[in-house]
Design goal:
Elements (H helix, E strand, L loop, with lengths): L1 H8 L3 H12 L6 H21 L10 H38 L15 H64 L2 H28 L2 H6 L1 H12 L5 E6 L8 H22 L3 E9 L2 E8 L11 H12 L3 E6 L5 E8 L6
Helix pairs in contact: 1-5, 2-5, 3-4, 5-6, 5-10, 8-9, 9-10
Length: 343
């Protein structure tokens, strides 16, 4: 998972060491010493003036009042500047902490400011790196267990339920051959219902365990997926180029599952009559695009399906974005990195 963590966080060990060095560098004066030095300088100057030839008359003359007020204004302005520049990084850190999302990794507040502030930001960034690495490891274990369970359920549906329905269909055929004329229509309806149930079981098993992905490869699996979702109310066009770089089995499975979930959302929730499925090489990897002309993104929170897509993307170090389509509808983009030697 070390490679995944580096890709996801976008922070190399050199950057982390540089941030730590920044926080520990002696040339960066702490916020305490900045404020103390400014106040001490103001008090020293005021004391020197009082011990020197400068006096304050009673009543205070206008020129003396202007000098005192000017000195006070300079001291206050200096304190304000020190606090503004000293606390600015803390305000940026506060905004970053309020908007952080482990499903959208890589964003880090810039290490800046006095030594205490830089150290706090560095510690926070290191904590995010650990959290994202632990989440990636946990997601990998969960998704691996989920795929194993999908395979088990698909196998049982095919071997147990499918064979049972096939036997029932054969028995109904023998019954239909011997049934009286007035019962043959009803037996025929039972046969059709059983056949439809058997087809549905097979369809569910194929979606749970994409055997076509293992047997024919990613390109044909995506074409088969587009054909499967093309119904009377939805037309799915596909464009999968043949000169794709080699992907790992884990990456191929993630691409297939994201495409499957994207088309499922289109068919169930988008109210679209056209969709597009594309897979093409891009600099540094491959890009999957699922686009529809439906109702588009709404203010509703992301559901379990989209969260699952984001977790799968994190598993292989890919980036996932959901945006409004150019005209209308929704556009899902998955960009999968490919190692340099595999291109």
């Amino acid at each position: 998972m070390g490679v995944v963590t580096d890709i996801r966080s976008g922070r190399s060990p050199e950057r982390v060491e540089g941030a730590v060095s920044y926080a520990k560098a002696g040339s960066y004066v702490s916020l305490f010493w900045r404020i103390f030095s400014l106040n001490a300088a103001g008090l020293v100057v005021a004391t020197a003036l009082l011990l020197g030839p400068v006096t304050v008359s009673t009543p205070v003359l206008a020129g003396e009042a202007l000098v005192l007020l000017g000195g006070l204004a300079m001291l206050l302005a200096g304190n304000a500047l020190v606090l503004r520049f000293g606390l600015g990084p803390l305000q940026r850190l506060d905004r970053a902490m309020a908007t952080v999302d482990l499903l959208r990794p890589g964003s880090r507040p810039v290490v800046a400011g006095p030594a205490e502030t830089a150290g706090l930001i560095t510690t926070y960034n290191a904590m995010l790196d650990r959290l994202e690495a632990e989440r990636a490891a946990g997601a990998a274990r969960a998704l691996s267990a989920q795929e194993s369970e999908r395979h088990r359920i698909a196998r049982e549906l095919h071997d147990e339920v499918g064979q049972t329905l096939t036997a029932v269909l054969l028995q109904l055929k023998r019954v239909a051959d011997r049934a009286p004329e007035d019962l043959r229509d009803e037996v025929g309806q039972a046969q059709e219902a059983t056949r439809a149930g058997l087809d549905e079981i097979r369809r569910i098993a194929r979606r749970l365990r994409p055997g076509v992905l293992e047997e024919l490869g990613l390109s044909r699996a995506l074409r088969s997926l587009a054909a499967e979702f093309t119904t009377h109310g939805l037309t799915v066009r596909h464009h999968v180029t043949g000169d794709l770089p080699a992907l790992t089995p884990e990456s191929e499975l993630v691409v297939y599952r994201v495409a499957q979930e994207g088309l499922t959302n289109t068919a169930r929730h988008a109210g679209a009559d056209r969709a597009e499925l594309r897979l093409r090489p891009v600099p540094g990897g491959v890009e999957l695009l699922v686009r529809d002309n439906g109702t588009g993104l709404r203010a509703a929170p992301e559901g379990a399906g989209i969260t699952g897509m984001r977790e799968r993307a994190l598993l292989i170090g890919a980036s996932l974005s959901l945006e409004p389509a150019p005209d209308r509808g929704t556009e899902v983009r998955l960009r999968v990195p490919v190692p340099e030697g595999a291109r």
